[in-house]
């Protein structure tokens, strides 16, 4: 009997997780993992936002933050897959997957022998992700995105787009990302990028305070990855965002 994607995911977890509503759940009755960081993160847990997230909210917000030179959301999905160099048979982890737009694309890219894991802390987001369907190579997990519950060196690629700046402990998250990647595994991150020039820097910092998001400096994420043993690092900037990618080891 063929093994389901959820069963395969179960074997990669440090602790077994019960299956609830179509996804594995390690958070149980908790509203989220870790402390809330602000308005944007709280919105992710609402019932309404997941219904409009993929089609309206995320594309519109992304365009406002990336400016006219940044990729569309569909372009982000394609770029992430390219940066991760996904191949058939790979296991890829989509951290803070939301409603699963990237996860579904990754599931198609890794083929029938691969596994695409969508991890998020919001029940409402994962409920919408499950309802969207997708390849049978996709499995969803409700868990802590900062302290990943996967066994060390289990994934070939890790994506975290538009989320690291909302984590209460982003440096701890980066440690966890490096831990679960296999040697030679690839990472792709999209997060905030504050300009070094005033008044743009001041405006970006103020926006981050209001929304509860951390504004990283340009070059800061690349330096953090180098400190954790990543090489072949690339950086792309658009508006107040950065896309940073690299290879572990």
UniProtKB/TrEMBL annotation:
Its EC number is 2.1.1.-. The keyword Magnesium does not apply. One of its GO terms (biological process) is methylation. Keywords: Methyltransferase, Transferase. Gene3D superfamilies: Vaccinia Virus protein VP39. It holds the Pfam family Methyltransf_11. The keyword Disulfide bond does not apply. GO terms for molecular function: methyltransferase activity. It comes from the Bacteria. Residues 93-188 form the Methyltransferase type domain. This is Class I SAM-dependent methyltransferase.
